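Lab notebook, design round three. We kept the backbone fixed and only want residue identities now. Task for the bench partner: fill in a sequence for the structure below.
Input structure tokens:
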């Protein structure tokens, strides 16, 4: 498997891993997952990480933000610039805060909360049910 194959597989892996409570802001080798996504120019992974609450302002050991590893005007630069300049919605901030408070037990705990099914699906990153007419 080449490096390119790994980067293509990574977002689908993350989709199943992050809802289970993985820390998207964890740093390894002095950089966050968002720094890696920026370096590999993976816009899909950048979008996914932001959805799961990654800190777009995080700095690595060289004091660089993820946007510093992109080319001016590239899709990954534009994506990161958008996220740096546009605050998350209150709805998204709430989801990230609740899931952060629950930690790695989020999947098992959310389904047991006395909340409407629609909110449980939202907190679990599940799409809303399709209503056929």
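Proposed sequence:
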């Amino acid at each position: 498997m080449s490096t390119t194959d790994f980067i293509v597989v990574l977002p689908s892996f993350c989709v199943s891993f992050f809802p289970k409570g993985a820390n998207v802001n964890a740093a390894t080798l002095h950089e966050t997952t968002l720094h890696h996504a920026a370096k590999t120019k993976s816009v899909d992974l950048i979008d996914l990480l932001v959805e799961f609450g990654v800190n777009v302002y995080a700095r690595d050991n060289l004091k660089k933000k993820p946007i510093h590893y992109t080319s001016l005007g590239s899709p990954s630069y534009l994506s990161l610039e958008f996220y740096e300049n546009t605050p998350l919605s209150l709805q998204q901030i709430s989801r990230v805060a609740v899931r952060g408070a629950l930690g790695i037990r989020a999947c098992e705990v959310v389904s047991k909360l006395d909340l409407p099914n629609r909110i449980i699906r939202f907190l679990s990153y599940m799409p809303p049910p399709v209503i056929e007419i």
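Keep this in mind before ordering anything: Residues 90-123 form one domain.
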